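Lab notebook page, bench 4
Experiment: in silico fold of construct C2
Operator: M.H.
Input chain length: 396 residues
Purpose: comparison with the prior construct
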Amino acid sequence: MALPLVITAAVMAFAWPAGRISPRDVPVGIVGTGSASQHAVEALTRAKPGAFDFHLYADRQAARSAIKNRDAYGAFAISGHSITVFKATAASSSVAQLLTEVGQQLADKATQQIAQRKAAGAHSPARAHKHAAAEPGAVRPGAVQQKAARPGAASADASVPILLKAIDVVPVAAEDPRGAVFSSTVFPLTICGILIGAFVAMARGLVRSRHRVLTLLVACAVAALGVNLVAQGFLGALPHHHVATWAILSLDLLSISATAAGVIRLLGPGGLGLSAAVMVFVGNAFSGATSAPEMLPKGVGHIGQWLPPGAGASLLRDTTYFDGNSGAGHLAVLALWSVCGLTAVMFGHWVTGKPRGTQPGVTASGELLPALPGSGEILSVRRHAHAHARRHDGDG
């Protein structure tokens, strides 16, 4: 019964956040404090309550700076003739597409309101009274043509739409226009980190704790270099700050592998299952790497950012595209998990009471564990035979 429950929980952990993706307090900027901007905020608040967290910026340059500093995912600049959407596909392709759609909705609604105002002005009571006061039969030359032309003119004015312009402030790499390679690069790091940690924790050749720590550091650095060569050198998905990107990939792998090795050191082989459950089924599923943490259900995005997969994906994005802006918190999370994991690897034997270098099923002297119940007689006979042989050797 346990296995079906585990499988059901694993599917639930991945499918539930994916099925509930929707904007929740996404930081978005509004340029200016005019009536048009206020009407836009009110319209978005009514149409999508709780979807956006609005920030006001004095001008367009301030909005662009906020996007580059990771203070906002995008911004709307609204004028009498156009709506400009500032977005950053590098921050999240899903949010960038959402902002473009919202901007188009605002433009369509503004065009419709202008058309309604023009239609109401053309049929106002004052104009109707003026036409009724005209003498019957007094038709001026060209009046028929003017009457026929006026509806067309009003229609032409009303048909002029509010233009929508979308500006990508921080675009994603041209070789990865949808960010699929980025997310595909991040997810396997979790499984690879757990495999490295399990190997280091269970390897019989690594006797001393410092050897395990050194192996973790070297393995993560080499593996991160290989990931960077594939993701950027072959696929072009990590286009900037190559050395810093390699360092972040190494730290991401270290935080996962050190945690797995430390938990295995403390709990034995059962720690491998616990590490996999937390890092893969919770960490990967709640990371928001394919969308954004603000697009996940309430609380889920925050949990994901406190685990290495989510913090690593966000820090990698901040480093690669945003010069490390807003990455200090994610860096602290990865460093904390790494330090805790390495500490457990170094000093876990003090907690468990096992001498250094021992493996599960092996005593400190290297002898096998006692035989199963019922085999004591055979064991005593073998020990007696060895003792008798040693006495005869001494006599000889």
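Observations: The beta strands are 26-31, 52-57, 74-78, 82-87, 163-168. The chain has 14 helices and five strands.
Next step: discuss at group meeting.
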